[in-house]
């Protein structure tokens, strides 16, 4: 193909990209935060809750990863139980703010059919361990910074578009609910977990 024909094609491609970007309206708070270019280091959600009826949930989410202590974990380890997955990292202010609530709720449900699993999207193991010690968090976290495998595993259903994001998976490993952003109301997360557990009752 000649250079003369390549130039119009390239220009058409740029126009297409520009039109696509112009579709990101100011009503999209996540897009607004990305464009503002602040140095806060994270895109915060608004705490909105999405619940998915059981008959509308997608496929089971399959994942595997390496925890902060070097051991491995997979979705098979949580088969048959409700799993709460929290995406976080240590220097994220909303992550620090919600940590005490997550600790308390995880302890309340420890023997009631729900487990917790963190997904650290930015830190190395030492930082994650220090964070967990500081906030007395006992549930493990997958270290996802190197390959993003956990984020990829969840991208097809209800993606974790902000940090923090908390997902509740049903006993079949399907996403039943999502809190996009900081858990502002512990009672809401508790209700989501209780309702998901009750589905098997």
Automatic annotation (TrEMBL):
Domain Thioredoxin: start-end pairs: 38-198
Subcellular location: Cell envelope
Keywords, sorted A to Z: Cytochrome c-type biogenesis, Disulfide bond, Redox-active center, Signal, Signal-anchor, Transmembrane
GO cellular component: cell envelope
GO terms, biological process: cytochrome complex assembly
CDD domains: TlpA_like_family
PROSITE patterns attached to this UniProt entry: PROKAR_LIPOPROTEIN, THIOREDOXIN_2
One Pfam family it belongs to: Redoxin
GO MF term (any one): oxidoreductase activity
Cleaved signal peptide residues: 1-20
Primary location recorded for the protein, binned into one broad class: other
Name of the protein in its database record: TlpA family protein disulfide reductase
Biological source species: Cryobacterium lactosi
Organism classification: Bacteria, Bacillati, Actinomycetota, Actinomycetes, Micrococcales
